């Protein structure tokens, strides 16, 4: 009887803690949305920021965040896939592999500020790329890469062994087996993982303070030639992302409505991350259904 | 249906890869114009062209950014990039030659000391604006004026209660800046005349917005801010009975101010020179400089050298 | 690795030579590609370590700062006439914020993972798991922003002090590392063999008895791994902590008094110092300490994982 009572109490405690966690999250999201949604309008999302006058928007920052995400993914995905394929298919169980595994682990737990400082020292100053989107993308690659490697490796390992052996038995080369037999099966979980990782890139600020910079030159959204200085597509211009903008406006903002802009931008950031999460789940599920049903 | 979705995804992936390829190609091309940052001056025709980078002080960045945009709108052959990163970063980059203009809140000689003193000598100073600072307190402390001695006592921890400087009975909370801050250096040099202490329990923030927020919310707090950050949420106290205002700074009555510097390595040429001239023109000085809360350099009736000696202009 | 090659060379049919050559080429290209990717990973990590160490060691090698002073010195006065670099207050700040954050987050995270695996797996999967993943996705600046506008004022009104300090930092961090701890704990609990639990239930043990006597002890090393990874993340977090901790370079007398961490002093001062100056290099030394701590955390995780495997 006594054991039963304890059991009930402890179950109550665990359920209570769980409710607390959900309450904290709901409070957090609610707080951000309630404070922020009021300031979100079409104008806010697409107009450029103001230094000292009220009514500035976050247009360029939003664009920069998305563009930086695309740039980072363009660098990260091929590299991460390659290294992930190595880890799951080519690596022999020896010291070298253990060492590489260790490297991936260390790389993924590097503090983002250390990565940012490395970016400042090497990419910004030594390579002379300056504060630019490209420098930012390289720094983000450094700590997105291990994530990508792990996602690819785990997804490939999740593929049933028989499928791989069937491919090899058909006389396909190992590379061919990977690309045409294993990859299609692994893609749903790779896509889900990648989008979740992308959400992290979207919100990163510490590493970008030192690499992509905190200024946002006026962009000419009618000029899409990546070679031009005011073109939004030029990867060698300094760019302030949404997360960095929140940081800057909170700390240095001169505009009278800085607090509202920060609140609005935070809400936009959280909504975007929410969309990433939901999108990743949805896409993963859809892909899984399509691929498994058609195979 | 299933197949078509799959096909679509494959197509999108392929497109991304293709975009990747073409973008890489573009990268190679665009690298040269933005990096070289050459100043191919073309003074013969009267107009200038070239591209350059101005980096450094975050306090000066809004002004340089705004003026550079105006300037580029007028001279479409000139391209200017403004990068904030701190006064120290700006000075070291201009001394190394990686950028053409280094923005700084302090004299180069104050940052580049000892082994780097040689570097400071190669830099040419362009003072483009003046920024003044005021001691600010939480609204509840009940003090309107502080003398230099009182400020020194507060910032070195000798006085810890507001009643000792004529306010109400409340503990003083210091909101200082980090030791590396240019704002702190200016405040120490011209308001205190001595170094302040990093006291236990004091708050340190580098960013003016955060300082303002903390001073306005924390009972008994005191900090210091540039005039452009003053608003109703905090109270600016007088210094030795003088109010911190642009007029008092210009006439030399209020001493807590500093120049905003734009350094070049050697005398500026071409586009850089043209831009700096524009910066000092009446249009900018009476317009953007004043608008953004700085004090125009041409309004100053006094001038000051690196050692702090003030003389009439 | 030689498997497919030996297979194709063993294939004797002469008309297929063209195809074999194509196979070889394909395989060779694929292999070259993945090896290149891995090589890049190795190059990246080595260059990070080398570059940061080259800057971070300068104060000790050529600028006359002793390692002992840096690690145990109490005074940080980089701009004084005789600069002093004692980083102990930052170390204390970093360790105490991340440990307290783990103390708050670990029980919460483990409870949440028990809820998800043992009590209501369905609700857990459909409500709690997405909620926790969302927590992981919220950017750190947003946490800092909320911390500064909600937690700091709350602490200021509730406890003596200014609100900023180690406690404020730890609370913000605990929410940030909760997802790390929870997801690793959940994985560990899920991978537990079902027979173990069923045996316990069959013997008449209640759910809590099974959890407390069987499940938690067996998964302990894995749970600790999650906690250590959480601490590692908290240790390296910069912006959110910097916004709420107050940044006085002293060891505070209470949890509600302004303190500093390694990351926050770097964020505050890096841009204000000139490259090559002693102050700047000392900040790189702090970054090097952060780097070494990362290695240490990974090492601890490795030790724990070895114990997981043994049990």
Automatic annotation (TrEMBL), chain A:
This is Phosphate transport system permease protein PstA. It holds the Pfam family BPD_transp_1. The gene is pstA. Its main location: membrane. InterPro entries: MetI-like, MetI-like_sf, Phosphate_PstA. GO terms for cellular component: plasma membrane. GO terms for molecular function: phosphate transmembrane transporter activity. Keywords: Cell membrane, Membrane, Transmembrane, Transmembrane helix, Transport. It comes from Cohnella nanjingensis.
TrEMBL record, chain B:
InterPro entries: PBP_domain, Phos-bd, Phosphate_ABC_transporter. It is found in: Cell membrane. Coiled coil: none annotated. SUPFAM superfamilies: Periplasmic binding protein-like II. Residues 1-25 form the signal peptide. It comes from the Bacteria. Residues 25-44 are annotated as: Disordered. It is a lipid-anchor. One of its GO terms (cellular component) is plasma membrane. One of its GO terms (molecular function) is phosphate ion binding. The complex is composed of two ATP-binding proteins (PstB), two transmembrane proteins (PstC and PstA) and a solute-binding protein (PstS). Involved in the system for phosphate transport across the cytoplasmic membrane. NCBIfam families: ptsS_2 (TIGR02136). This is Phosphate-binding protein. It comes from Cohnella nanjingensis.
Automatic annotation (TrEMBL), chain C:
It is found in: Cell membrane. GO terms for molecular function: phosphate transmembrane transporter activity. Keywords: Cell membrane, Membrane, Phosphate transport, Transmembrane, Transmembrane helix, Transport. InterPro entries: MetI-like, MetI-like_sf, Phosphate_PstC, Phosphate_Transport_Permease. It is a multi-pass membrane protein. The chain crosses the membrane at residues 32-53, 99-119, 131-154, 166-189, 210-232, 282-304. The keyword Secreted does not apply. One of its GO terms (biological process) is phosphate ion transport. Residues 91-301 form the ABC transmembrane type-1 domain. GO terms for cellular component: plasma membrane. PROSITE patterns: ABC_TM1 (PS50928). Part of the binding-protein-dependent transport system for phosphate; probably responsible for the translocation of the substrate across the membrane. Belongs to the binding-protein-dependent transport system permease family. CysTW subfamily. This is Phosphate transport system permease protein. It comes from Cohnella nanjingensis.
